[in-house]
Specification:
alpha/beta, Conserved Hypothetical Protein Ylqf, Chain: A, domain 2, 6-stranded mixed beta sheet, two-stranded antiparallel ribbon, about 40% helix, binds guanosine-5'-triphosphate, binds magnesium ion
Length: about 280
């Protein structure tokens, strides 16, 4: 797949916004996509967040393989992180967020209490595009304060949202990708998750790559979702074509409508219809 070019100007601005806000926040809530917890971690985040305490949330966990989510949660915890798997749509893991925040902020809370001060905890919500930052904020505050949509790059500016009932002040931030992926497979996985605009991608190539990744560990999901038989000798494009034919995505002359088949495969993966699939492996 060709290099995925991702508005360098926009990303540089988003990073600058995060840096500028850091002095005014107490902690960071870092969102990783549970379907790719390694690939969706921006390599710049650790240095960008400096020494602020970080709560890591694995989002959209109802779409991910639960065994893999448990594995990655424990692996990240072993490396000394506070980690919670959540799903805002399925309402999973949300109750643990406040506990996670309070435990990270226990010293500040105790200090404030000793001085008789009541201040909100100021938390910045950060992560790659489309990972669910704005949706998390809306879920925590119980109303649609932040714009959230099913496409990457919706949030363009930092915005602060107060949740007095929980003693929180949340900062929504624009999603950050990095300009060049050292491992091109990382770029492919993020594109499969919907974190890169489809308009700048070759969706046929991408959906064949997705089929290749899914086949490695979740071949039966493709078989049962699309009602196809997969032979060992099939190329990923062969599988793609079988799916297209089975769904009747044909043009005149019996040729596969590749754009339509590619779009449907990507959409169904993103919506979790092919199964609970995690793209990253150790
Ligand atoms: N199934 C599921 N979908 C989610 C979850 N969280 C967010 N989404 C969906 O993911 C899409 C992106 O959500 P946003 O909250 O806009 O993501 P964002 O990180 O703010 O994106 P940008 O502002 O573009 O960086 C929306 O269609 C949400 O409905 C979740 O926990 N589960
Ligand atoms: Mg947003």
């Amino acid at each position: 797949m060709a290099d995925i070019v991702w508005y360098p100007g926009h990303m540089a601005k988003a990073k600058r916004l995060i840096k500028e806000s850091l002095p005014n926040i107490d902690m960071v809530i870092e969102l990783l996509d549970a379907r790719a917890p390694l690939s969706s971690k921006n390599p710049d985040f650790n240095s960008l967040f400096g020494n602020k305490p970080v709560l890591t949330l694995l989002t959209k966990s109802s779409l991910a393989d639960p065994v893999a989510t448990k594995y990655f949660t424990e692996r990240l915890k072993r490396s000394g992180r506070e980690v919670i798997a959540i799903d805002c749509k399925a309402g999973q893991g949300l109750k643990n967020i406040q506990t996670g925040i309070n435990s990270l902020m226990s010293e500040k809370l105790a200090r404030d209490a000793a001085r008789g001060i009541k201040r909100p905890i100021r938390a910045m919500v950060a992560g790659i595009t489309n990972v669910g930052k704005s949706t998390l904020i809306n879920t925590i505050c119980g109303s649609k304060k932040a714009a959230a949509e099913d496409r990457p790059g919706v949030t363009r500016h930092n915005s602060r949202i107060s949740v007095p009932s929980l003693g929180l002040e949340l900062t929504d931030t624009p999603g950050i990708l990095w300009h060049k992926f050292d491992d091109e497979l990382v770029g492919v996985k993020l594109a499969c998750l919907g974190s890169i605009r489809d308009e700048i991608l070759d969706t046929l190539d991408l959906s064949c790559r997705l089929i290749g990744i899914i086949r490695e560990h979740y071949s039966e999901c493709l078989v049962s979702r699309f009602g196809i038989v997969i032979e060992e000798t099939d190329s990923d494009y062969d599988v793609f074509e079988k799916i297209g034919r089975r769904r009747g995505f044909l043009r005149s002359g019996g040729v596969i409508d590749e754009d339509r088949a590619a779009g449907v495969i990507l959409d169904e993966f993103r919506a979790g219809k092919i199964g609970r699939i995690t793209l990253d492996r150790e």
